[in-house]
Specification:
Blueprint lengths: L19 H14 L19 H7 L7 E3 L13 H10 L2 E6 L8 H11 L2 E12 L9 E8 L8 H28 L6 H8 L7 H10 L6 H9 L14 H10 L3 E4 L8 H11 L3 E2 L2 E2 L2 E2 L10
Parallel strand pairs: 1-2, 2-3, 5-6
Antiparallel strand pairs: 3-4, 4-5, 7-8
Helix pairs in contact: 3-4, 6-7, 7-8
The structure holds zinc ion.
Length: 305
């Protein structure tokens, strides 16, 4: 989780003040994130008594700061915690609005939502969808791209459509993991399938972090980073693709099911300009700019085009 948001050094330039629209949007978000408290009848409120409690509270300047965490993984993909333990940890870190964005599954959302109720937190139902950027749309080729989808409180509309896409990707993850293990085997770094499955947990579609952890546990590498650098990275000798849909298909699916689409960790892309350009014309809504493992330096030129 990357819950610590740091301001960039200003380098002598003044930070632009939010415009009226941005300020209004922020107020709405604050009001949404802090559900209305029980009305407190007091003389100070007398002048605002015509306002609903939430608005009256905001009129008193009680919006407060809201800490959002918009990218998190639970045990349902490659995180370490169950959704409820994740929610509890986020709560301890002061997070008020948490998006659970497991890889290619929304299975953890119901548990996260019921855990969040205890702490007065809000959960944004989300998912991080594995896709591929292939300008000529050739199956099995192209650059892997992760696209975050965020939904309203009721989740996706046309859930079946989204779910069958996610199911297909998860099936592909099993095949892909098997291919990666076969490649590792030829590289004389044999890892057992059962070992990876045990790390992933029951019913969880395996991902590269699970294989990386197996490589660490088997003593072939010192840490997960080394496993990626040496074997599993996008250009690594043990890398394999799964059955990810094209980025355009994913963005359109998110929009059709009532979600907001956002490009995840653009700093890990080989061809960010080409990917962002294609995503933009497919209707991408947003882009991740900061996470604990990286950030976008400056504004990519392509955003202005
Ligand atoms: Zn990702």
């Amino acid at each position: 989780m990357g819950s610590k948001k740091r301001a960039k050094p200003s380098r002598g330039k003044k930070r632009a003040r939010p415009c009226a629209d941005q300020a209004l949007a922020l107020e709405y978000v604050r009001a949404w994130a802090h559900p209305a408290p029980p009305p407190e009848p007091s003389t100070a409120d007398a002048g605002n008594s015509f306002l609903p409690p939430q608005a009256a509270r905001m009129a008193r300047g009680g919006g407060g700061n809201v800490l959002f965490e918009l990218h998190s993984h639970s045990k349902h993909s490659d995180g370490f915690l169950s959704p409820s333990a994740l929610v509890e940890r986020a709560h301890r870190n002061g997070v008020k609005v948490l998006a659970l964005t497991d890889h290619d599954t929304m299975a953890g959302i119901p548990e996260a939502m019921s855990a969040a109720r205890k702490f007065g937190m809000r959960i944004i139902p989300g998912v991080e969808i594995s896709a591929v950027h292939s300008p000529r749309q050739i199956p099995g080729s192209g650059e892997p791209v992760h696209i975050l989808a965020y939904y309203g409180m009721c989740g996706p509309s046309r859930f079946d459509e989204l779910d069958s896409m996610l199911l297909n990707i998860r099936d592909g993850r099993f095949l892909r993991a098997k291919n990666m293990l076969a490649k590792l085997n030829t590289l004389k770094v044999p890892i057992k399938w059962e070992h990876v499955m045990k790390i992933a947990g029951e019913g969880v579609a395996p991902g590269r972090p699970h294989i990386a952890r197996a490589l660490v546990e088997a003593g072939y590498v010192d840490n997960v980073r080394e496993a990626f650098n040496k074997y599993l990275g996008n250009d690594g000798p043990a890398y394999a693709t799964g059955s990810e849909p094209f980025i355009e298909t994913v963005v359109q699916m998110i929009s059709r099911t009532g979600g907001i689409s956002a490009l995840a960790h653009p700093w890990s892309l080989k061809n960010p300009d080409a990917v962002i350009r294609s995503l933009k014309s497919a209707g991408l809504d947003a882009m991740e700019v900061y996470r604990s493992d990286g950030k976008v330096d400056g504004t990519p030129l392509v955003l202005h085009k």
